[in-house]
């Protein structure tokens, strides 16, 4: 082989999704020899974060057919890995005209310091606006390409959630920075409201009467008092969370706050599940302002890149832009490793994205998790009355015609976009729509306006796509030493299921070892003068 | 506690495998040298205080962790770095010609447009030089970078390289003063013990 890679490994990981990257980090961390490859030239697959040009390439990428299968050699059969790009469908993009507020040139540092008064004057000036046609928008976005970090799978972390615990314990957190989600919003009947989440929010909110405030306080405290696996909670498995809330003497508005925003539930969610989801939310409140959520600066893909770095620090070898096919024993024995770049790489264990698993092992008929996504680039915040920063909005359909849509708005502080722009992500379950994105159209008509009437934001760019994630439960009959990793479950806002999956795979391979232990007191401390 | 420290600067070391990136890092931060240093394992980043021209800064110097071998450094490696050291081996022409690729990678991923770059020709203690000092200087001039030759083994030029880089960063307006202006949150060990401020729900249950 042209590259001098070692020829055998404890673990070969194919695909750089989040689950794969966590497993790679955990294995390398306990001293296992790890090779991590991805056929794309970027990290993350369906979890990737792209600049604007990368998005254009990704949209245009039709994916390649799996490489032809080789004839068996010495009892070894070659099975081509699949093309994960095929799981994305109904892609379209559009550009629109609109008015953007031009960012003012920041005064040169030295000048600003010298003339503090002059600075105050300049902020009084009317903001400079620029009117763009659809063609202008297209050119503008291309010219600002690198200022965009657009997530295929945007996700948030609960401040007191299991992902944050693992990041801290493994010290992967030192590669990352976060921003709090400033506004938790709910849009019902076209009206956007700020959801009171913390005690102080409940005290100060104007959308709830005083009597109701006491009831809401009591209810939120009660929700937290349910113990895991308690009889009380078990009894609630047969009713819906919606019905549970209806019995609580609270107005419809407040029911909606809890159902859609705090529990992020749907009309079908069971009461027991709804309570657990509400608890996850409420337990994380109050540590970084009145928000339970934090967002990784520069996007979701940073998290998996941070795990890849940990893996590399502990000796994991990284190769992007490189394909790998399976090597299986003809007599249904264990997987021998992978065939890559003309060479055989032996492996005790192979970890692979479900999307890449050779098709003979995948049952596409069984139920899968399919979601719709939109990425919008807009010119204004959806909720001008909120704090400047990240907003998370839930858009339920009260008549149950569709599942709720989750909207995440990122401003320039997150490094997702340049000043003057916003990146808005939409996610919804695919299922009830008769035509693709029918539900998104309703949300867009409510919240955005092409002409900017009523101070509503205008959509300048719209990317739509649908992702059909193959979950590891759809994969069967793999050799025992091959472990498949699901793609991003975008319908849940946090990383919990991915983290659990990674830990399960790790434990299956190395039952006696600790999952991502804290590194020993690190050398860098000692190196200070 | 650290009133004397002006700021923390993130410095990257990049370049082909085997040019001595980790050795430079270890020589500078720990004043150690291991001639058998093979492919980098276990070096993440190291911090060191440096005082130059009366300014004390803390340097966080990031190693590639071997991810440069197949050109798979993550974009996140480059984020927010104020300085980059591009290393080649003076006894290997090929490592010198590859600097072009490293510069363009740096331009693609660095988030600060005015990041200060320094080209370092390492291993000047070794025989069989393939890149003359003059060629190095010309390359650095063409790309408007700082330049120095060094030997991690004999310590020649190492301290000097870091000092010069830091001076240039401090002199570059807007490169380092505006750090942390966005109120970003780091999650770390303290997170575990932190009590919710008023407004949290947990405290109501105690």
UniProtKB/TrEMBL annotation, chain A:
<protein>
    <recommendedName>
        <fullName>Rab proteins geranylgeranyltransferase component A</fullName>
    </recommendedName>
</protein>
<dbReference type="Pfam" id="PF00996">
    <property type="entry name" value="GDI"/>
</dbReference>
<dbReference type="Pfam" id="PF22603">
    <property type="entry name" value="RAE1_2_domI_C"/>
</dbReference>
<dbReference type="GO" id="GO:0005968">
    <property type="term" value="C:Rab-protein geranylgeranyltransferase complex"/>
</dbReference>
<dbReference type="GO" id="GO:0005829">
    <property type="term" value="C:cytosol"/>
</dbReference>
<feature type="compositionally biased region" description="Basic and acidic residues">
    <location>
        <begin position="102"/>
        <end position="122"/>
    </location>
</feature>
<dbReference type="GO" id="GO:0005634">
    <property type="term" value="C:nucleus"/>
</dbReference>
<dbReference type="InterPro" id="IPR001738">
    <property type="entry name" value="Rab_escort"/>
</dbReference>
<dbReference type="GO" id="GO:0006886">
    <property type="term" value="P:intracellular protein transport"/>
</dbReference>
<comment type="similarity">
    <text>Belongs to the Rab GDI family.</text>
</comment>
<keyword id="KW-0963">Cytoplasm</keyword>
<dbReference type="GO" id="GO:0005092">
    <property type="term" value="F:GDP-dissociation inhibitor activity"/>
</dbReference>
<feature type="domain" description="RAE1/2">
    <location>
        <begin position="373"/>
        <end position="489"/>
    </location>
</feature>
<dbReference type="InterPro" id="IPR054420">
    <property type="entry name" value="RAE1_2_domI_C"/>
</dbReference>
<dbReference type="InterPro" id="IPR018203">
    <property type="entry name" value="GDP_dissociation_inhibitor"/>
</dbReference>
<feature type="region of interest" description="Disordered">
    <location>
        <begin position="98"/>
        <end position="127"/>
    </location>
</feature>
<keyword id="KW-0343">GTPase activation</keyword>
<comment type="function">
    <text>Substrate-binding subunit (component A) of the Rab geranylgeranyltransferase (GGTase) complex. Binds unprenylated Rab proteins and presents the substrate peptide to the catalytic component B. The component A is thought to be regenerated by transferring its prenylated Rab back to the donor membrane.</text>
</comment>
<dbReference type="GO" id="GO:0005096">
    <property type="term" value="F:GTPase activator activity"/>
</dbReference>
<dbReference type="InterPro" id="IPR036188">
    <property type="entry name" value="FAD/NAD-bd_sf"/>
</dbReference>
<dbReference type="GO" id="GO:0016192">
    <property type="term" value="P:vesicle-mediated transport"/>
</dbReference>
<dbReference type="GO" id="GO:0007264">
    <property type="term" value="P:small GTPase-mediated signal transduction"/>
</dbReference>
Automatic annotation (TrEMBL), chain B:
<keyword id="KW-0653">Protein transport</keyword>
<keyword id="KW-0547">Nucleotide-binding</keyword>
<keyword id="KW-0636">Prenylation</keyword>
<keyword id="KW-0342">GTP-binding</keyword>
<keyword id="KW-0813">Transport</keyword>
<keyword id="KW-0378">Hydrolase</keyword>
<comment type="similarity">
    <text>Belongs to the small GTPase superfamily. Rab family.</text>
</comment>
<dbReference type="GO" id="GO:0003925">
    <property type="term" value="F:G protein activity"/>
</dbReference>
<dbReference type="InterPro" id="IPR001806">
    <property type="entry name" value="Small_GTPase"/>
</dbReference>
<dbReference type="GO" id="GO:0015031">
    <property type="term" value="P:protein transport"/>
</dbReference>
<dbReference type="InterPro" id="IPR005225">
    <property type="entry name" value="Small_GTP-bd"/>
</dbReference>
<dbReference type="GO" id="GO:0005525">
    <property type="term" value="F:GTP binding"/>
</dbReference>
<dbReference type="Pfam" id="PF00071">
    <property type="entry name" value="Ras"/>
</dbReference>
<dbReference type="InterPro" id="IPR027417">
    <property type="entry name" value="P-loop_NTPase"/>
</dbReference>
<keyword id="KW-0449">Lipoprotein</keyword>
<dbReference type="InterPro" id="IPR025662">
    <property type="entry name" value="Sigma_54_int_dom_ATP-bd_1"/>
</dbReference>
<dbReference type="InterPro" id="IPR050227">
    <property type="entry name" value="Rab"/>
</dbReference>
<protein>
    <recommendedName>
        <fullName>small monomeric GTPase</fullName>
        <ecNumber>3.6.5.2</ecNumber>
    </recommendedName>
</protein>
